Model the fold of this input.
Amino acid sequence: MENYTEKLNKLSKNLSKSEKVNSFDNKNDRESSTLAHAFLDITESTSLITKELIPKLMSNKISENQIDDILLDIGEEFRHILYHIKDPKYYSYLFENNDAD
Done:
């Protein structure tokens, strides 16, 4: 099984084959690496939410304090996901003209 670094390198290498992705590169950052990091971290966060946190919320023996703690944990994962959605320049169009909200 590949570790995180191996997955990151493979994904970044594949993404760098796209000229559109590369068009967002600058001196300090390669967009292929930013996207690869975002995709892998979002995958980890969504997995944690769906495989661990939601099942805990479904317990018949859950207390109010446990619910509050889990909701905070989910919020932190959402925050992490949002960061990785906003970080890549490739997806900057998602945040243009948000006046319709």
Q: What stands out?
A: Residues 42 and 76 are 12 Å apart (CA to CA). The chain has a mean pLDDT of 95. Residues 63-89 form one domain. The radius of gyration is 17 Å.
